[in-house]
Amino acid sequence: MKTRRVQLCWMPPSIGSLKFNVDGAVKGDGQVHDSNLAELLAIKTTLEVFVKIDWKGKTPLIIESDSLNVISSVMNANARP
């Protein structure tokens, strides 16, 4: 069975917005050993910084992740472990 590859292209954020792309790759020698947890922590940190610098409500925020598990967890409370 042949696997079909889908080519994805990075798109810049719209003018006036901020875009963060998180990736939770882990080597196994750090404190976080789960790539999903690493991505969730990166998203949490992004949101904390965004609120702390008082951009909430003033600047659109875009967060991208390559983990379907992480995106599903963030977007759907019922999908959270």
Q: What is the strand tally? A: 2
Helix content: 25-40%
Mean pLDDT: 80
Radius of gyration: 15 Å
Structural class: alpha+beta
Global outline: globular
Q: How far is the first residue's CA from the last residue's CA?
A: 33 Å
Number of self-contained structural domains: 1
Q: Number of helix segments?
A: 2
Strand order of the largest sheet: 1-2
Low-confidence stretches: none
**Main sheet summary:** 2 strands, parallel
Instruction: Report the portion of residues in β strands.
Output: 5-15%
Order of helices and strands: EHEH
What does this structure look like?
It is a single chain. The protein has about 80 residues and is of the alpha+beta class. The protein has one domain. Helix content is about 30%, strand content about 10%. The protein is built from 2 helices and 2 strands. Strands 1-2 form a two-stranded parallel ribbon. Strand 1, helix 1 and strand 2 form a beta-alpha-beta unit. The chain is globular and about 50 Å long. The N and C termini lie far apart (about 35 Å). The model has no long low-confidence stretch (mean pLDDT about 80).
Compile the SSE list and pairings.
Layout: E1 18-22, H1 35-52, E2 61-65, H2 68-75
In short:
This is RNase H type-1 domain-containing protein. Helix content is 32%, strand content 12%. With 81 residues, the chain is α+β, with helices and mostly antiparallel strands.
